[in-house]
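A student in our group prepared the protein record below, which I am reviewing. I have pasted the whole thing underneath without changing anything:
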Amino acid sequence: MRGSEFAELKAFVAVVDRASFARAADHLGLSRSALSQIIRQLESRLGARLLNRTTRSVAPTETGRRLHERIAPMLREIDDAVAQTVGATSRTAGTLRINTLSMAAKKIIAPRLGRFHRSHPEVVLDIVVDDGLSDIVAGGFDAGIRVGERVQKDMVAVRLTPDVPLLAVASPAYLAKAGEPKTPTDLHRHACINWRFPGSGRIARWQFQKKGKKIETLVEGALISNHQDIVVPAALQGLGIFYAYNDDGIAEALERGKLKRVLTDWSLTMPGLYLYYSNRRHLQPALRAFIDCLLDREEGKRASSK
């Protein structure tokens, strides 16, 4: 296979994996027009249409889907072989693709970007913020960050944070008008702010437990959203009760008295954040270094070496 043919196949897999010419072009370091030309050359060489394109989306044709199923695993095997070769030289370099929840990107990754780059200037971080629980293997990612209960069983998982409490909160104005629920069953008489899981589109069920008694319920209200920047302001503005992880926005609002906790003795603690990667992939030096950085191990190593 000539180098140009390999490049065409790699470009095709990148477009299908990301369902986007723009994202694939960014990943490959190409312009969209150059990537489009490469795909046209591949289709012309094979004599088959591989992708259906519209102004808003791109998806493989049936022929393209079959081709992708055959060649994508082979290309990933090649990437793994290259990563293992790089690992054998102990050189921390290359592109590291991470798929992460937005809250992990904000609280764990973003504050450490500068430190990681200074320690490992030859590593390019390709970070995709994705709350939709994408398949990291199918997407060609080296690792993902998810809540513990949502990590697939066949993955190697590294805990990043302790377990976190769920908090039921509402504005004082809402509670003054509607009263405070004493048990989870009281929520059916309240307006509640619902969370829709990105990706699946499923609405979260609210789970509670007290003295061994478990209650799981669906609630109703005036708002459903899949983004924290919508649901937290809604609670602040008195649209109802919200049940969520204790993030920075909620913690600050509680401290300033803009939100108040309810059902405190019923609230659960949920698994914390984990970084995970396929147990079939070699742990390359760049990913090992990234994990050390997220766990602040590099700081400890430097301190112990002084």
In short: The mean pLDDT is 86. DSSP finds eleven helices and 15 strands in the chain.
